[in-house]
Amino acid sequence: MARRHFVIDAASIRKQARADIEHGAVTAGYSADRVAVIKALNESLASEIVCVLRYRRHYYTASGIHARSVAAEFLEHANEEQSHADQIATRIVQLGGAPDFSPYGLQERSHTEYVEGQGLVEMLEENLVAERIAIDTYRKIIQYLGNDDPTTRRMMEAILASEEEHAEDLSSLLEELGKKGEPAKKPVRNRCKH
Ligand SMILES: [Fe+2]
Ligand SMILES: [Fe+2]
Q1: Residue 139 in contact with residue 39, Cβ under 8 Å?
Q2: Residue range 102-131, pLDDT digits in tens
Q3: For 6-58, what is each residue's pLDDT tens digit?
Q4: Which of 53, 116, 138, 185 is most buried, judged by most C-beta within 10 A?
Q5: Half-sphere exposure (Cβ direction) of 156: Cα atoms closer than 13 Å
């Protein structure tokens, strides 16, 4: 196999690094569309905030004989969604953008929906739908980023893995509730807006 020639032109990289110092972590070699990446990240941030709110609402309102273990799961997920929101906001700032925490238009910016749900089964279903929307939208963002912004891509890959775990947890809880004689699991409605 032919060897690929690899040389770093340190002199020109040093020159660029000094010239564009006001851009912080965004260097001349950044090949992604920064504005588009920041927009996608702000939409993801809105989705995470909506997920925090929905999970917390469910945590406080879950009731019934099986509520304790389900509520504990909702709280754990709410805290993990908050950590995702924090990571995304940090990255937006690194890219020279402004993280949008405004409550105005939050639901419109979010991919996922805020649905309160009645009873444990409906809450679990709504959260599972939201996780499935997050999984699909984050996968698309990862594909879009490709090799143009590996740092954002790796962050989104880690968040995607966490959303997949959340979806798996919710599926297992729905299955367990079914076995324990709770109301039968209804088919999950597709609430994806795209
Ligand atoms: Fe999340
Ligand atoms: Fe999640």
Answers
A1: no
A2: 999 999 999 999 999 989 999 999 999 999
A3: 888 888 888 888 888 888 888 888 889 999 999 999 999 999 999 999 999 99
A4: 138
A5: 28
Length of the chain: 194
| Whole-angstrom distance, CA of residue 160 vs CA of residue 177 | 26
Dihedral angle computed from the Cα positions of residues 35, 41, 42 and 48, in that order, rounded to the nearest 10 degrees: 180
Residue 80 CA, ligand 1 centroid: distance in Å: 7
Q: Which ligand is nearest to the CA of 77?
A: 2
Closest ligand relative to 138 C-alpha: 1
Q: What separation, in Å, do the N-terminal and C-terminal C-alpha atoms of the chain show?
A: 45
Q: What ligand is nearest to the CA atom of residue 129?
A: 2
- Any idea what the Cα angle at residue 162 is, between residues 48 and 194, rounded to 5°? 50
- Sign of the dihedral defined by the CA atoms of residues 52, 55, 61, 66, in that order: negative
User: From ligand 2's centre to the CA of 153, what distance in Å?
Assistant: 17
Tell me, in angstroms, the distance from the centre of ligand 2 to residue 27's CA.
32
CA–CA separation, 194 and 136 (whole Å): 10
